[in-house]
Amino acid sequence: MEVQKEAQRIMTLSVWKMYHSRMQRGGLRLHRSLQLSLVMRSARELYLSAKVEALDLETPSTPTRCPPLSPEPMDTQEDEEEASPRAAETLARCSAHPARVGRKRRSSSLSNGVDAGLVPSKKARLEEKEEAEDASSEVPDRLLPPPAQAEGAFPNLARVLQRSFSGLLNRGPTAPPTAPPARDAKPVCRPADPVLSVLVRAVVAF
Amino acid sequence: MGEDTDTRKINHSFLRDHSYVTEADIISTVEFNHTGELLATGDKGGRVVIFQREPESKNAPHSQGEYDVYSTFQSHEPEFDYLKSLEIEEKINKIKWLPQQNAAHSLLSTNDKTIKLWKITERDKRPEGYNLKDEEGKLKDLSTVTSLQVPVLKPMDLMVEVSPRRIFANGHTYHINSISVNSDCETYMSADDLRINLWHLAVTDRSFNIVDIKPANMEDLTEVITASEFHPHHCNLFVYSSSKGSLRLCDMRAAALCDKHSKLFEEPEDPSSRSFFSEIISSVSDVKFSHSGRYMLTRDYLTVKVWDLNMEARPIETYQVHDYLRSKLCSLYENDCIFDKFECAWNGSDSVIMTGAYNNFFRMFDRNSKRDVTLEASRESSKPRAVLKPRRVCIGGKRRRDDISVDSLDFAKKILHTAWHPAENIIAIAATNNLYIFQDKVNSDMH
C-alpha cells in the first residue's frame, strides 16, 4: 500500500513537473521531458506491480476467469488503433497471467471506496465525468492526476495525458511486473517502448 | 557595465554578505584559455566576464599572479522565437577559447540557439597630434593651424575592446548543450539534444550536420545527446555522450554523417544497484578528453568515470562523488536536484580529476594515489592565503567534529562548473554567483 501510494505520488509529481516545465523560460527541454517520462513509466510499473501484490495478499486466489473479451467499456477515450491489440492482449493475458486478469476484474469492484480516498478531491470533477461515461471504469483511470488548472488554461494537455494514461494502464505492462525487470547483461539500446512513446508524444505535442 | 565589475570581483577577501542572489548573476560556465592567462565566465544574464592573470612581479612577491577583471561584455540577449512562441534564454551555456593566432584573443560563446565568435583586442596606444582635430576630437578652427605635424602614438590606459565577429545562428532546432573547437583551429562543432553540427569559423550561413539521432517517429525517442567534444589532437575524432550513459566515439573520415559510431563505450548496468531512478542518474552530464588524448572523463549524477579509448567495455576507473545521496534520490527528484548537470575537469598532467557537488563542496581524486579530498568554496572558509580545510560528510556511525551530516547539506548551493588551469595547479570554482580561484603554489600531497 505504501509502495502504491509512493508510486502514485511520484506519478502525480512527474505530471506536475512536466506541465510546469512547459511554462519555463526557454521552452520545453527535450532531455528533461524524456527523463520525466522515464520516471513516470517506472512509477506506473511500480504502482501496477504493487497493486498486484497487494491484491494477491488481500484476497485468496479465486478460480480464474477470463474477463469478457470485448474491450473494456471505458474505452470511450481510447485511440481506436489501440482497441484491437488490447483485446488480443487481454485474451493473452487471460491465459498467461491469471492473477493479473483477476486483478483487472477485482479492482473495479473493490476499489471505489478504497482508492477514491487516495485521490485528491480536486480530481473529483473529472472523475465523475468519466464515471458517468462508463459504468465500470478502472481504478487506475481515476488515478489520473490532471493538473489543477487543466480545465482552464490547458485543457488539451490534460486530455492528451488522460488518454495516454488510460490507454497505458489498460494495456498493462507488456512484461511481467516483477520488479526490477530482467535486464540483459549485454547492454543494448532499449527497444522503443509504447508506453514511453505515447508519453513522449504528449510531451512533444507541446 | 562598470558597476558590474565590482560585484563580480573575485573573492580574495571578505565581502559583505550577498545572501540574495540575482538570477542573472548565476555563473553558468567557466573556461580557462589555452595558456591559462585568461579565464572566462558566462552567466545566466548573457554576460561574459574575462579575468586576466597579473604577471608575477618581483616587486610584489605576495601577489602571486592573481586574476583580475579584464573585460565584461553582454554576449547574448534574450530573444523570442515567434514561430514557436518561445522565449530563447540568454544564458551562456558554454564558452570555448580559440587558440591564439595573433595579438587578439577569440572565444566562442553560446546560448541555447546561437553561437557567437568574439574578438578581444587591447588598445594601449592612441594617436595624438592631429592637425584638424583637437584633443577632444572637435574640429579645430583652421585659422589656428599654423604648422603641420605628424600624429604620434602615445601610450594610454589599457582599453580592452570586444567585438562580435561572427554570429552562427539558426543551426539548431533543439537546445545547444556543448561546443568544441577542433584541433585544426578552423572548424568547431555544436551539439544540441539530437544533432551535432560542424561549422567553419569563417562561415556563418551554413553548417554540416554530422550526427543526427532524431528518430523518424519522435515517439520512438529513447535517448538524447548530452555533451560532445573533439579529440585534442586528432582532428577527425570526436565523442558524444548520451542520456543513457553511453559514449560514442566517431570518426569523420568514415562518413559524412557519423550516425554510426566507431566505438561505443558503455558499462553494463549493475542489476544490484538498479533503483527507481537509475535511468536518469546514469545520464552523462559532461565528457572531457584528457590532455593526452588517451582517456575520457565522464560525469553522471553520482560518479565520475575515466575511460580508456582502447577499452569500450567499461571505464577503467570509477570514483564515487557523493554516494550517500543514493538513498535520497526520491527527495532529490522532488526538489529537481536530480537533474543537475555537473561538470568535470582534468588537471594539466591528467593525474587529478575534479568535479563539483552540493553544499558548495567540490571533490578531487588523485588517480595515482587513489586518494580523494572534499573541499568547500565559501567565504567563511576562504580567507586569502589560507589553506583549504578538507571537509567530510558523515553518513552515520562515528561523527567527527566539523563533519557535515547528509541531512544538513544545502542543495541550493551546488557547484556545477569548475575549471582547471591547463598547466598549473590553479582552479576556478563557480558557486552560484561567486567565482572562487584557488591556487596551489607548492605541490602538496592531497589528504
UniProtKB/TrEMBL annotation, chain A:
Q: Where are the stretches annotated Disordered?
A: 58-150
What top-level branch of life does the organism fall under? Answer: Eukaryota
Which Pfam families did the record assign?
IER
The family this protein is said to belong to:
Belongs to the IER family.
Supply the name of the protein. Immediate early response gene 2 protein
Q: What is the lineage of its organism?
A: Eukaryota, Metazoa, Chordata, Craniata, Vertebrata
UniProtKB/TrEMBL annotation, chain B:
The GO terms describing molecular function are: protein phosphatase regulator activity
Q: What InterPro entries does its record include? A: PP2A_PR55 (IPR000009), PP2A_PR55_CS (IPR018067), WD40/YVTN_repeat-like_dom_sf (IPR015943), WD40_repeat_dom_sf (IPR036322), WD40_rpt (IPR001680)
Signal peptide: which range, if any?
none
Keyword annotations from UniProtKB, A to Z: Repeat, WD repeat
Any one GO cellular component localisation term in the record: protein phosphatase type 2A complex
Q: Which domain of life is it from?
A: Eukaryota
Similarity-based family: Belongs to the phosphatase 2A regulatory subunit B family.
PANTHER family on file: PROTEIN PHOSPHATASE PP2A REGULATORY SUBUNIT B
Q: Which protein is depicted?
A: Serine/threonine-protein phosphatase 2A 55 kDa regulatory subunit B
Quote the gene name from the UniProt entry: PPP2R2C
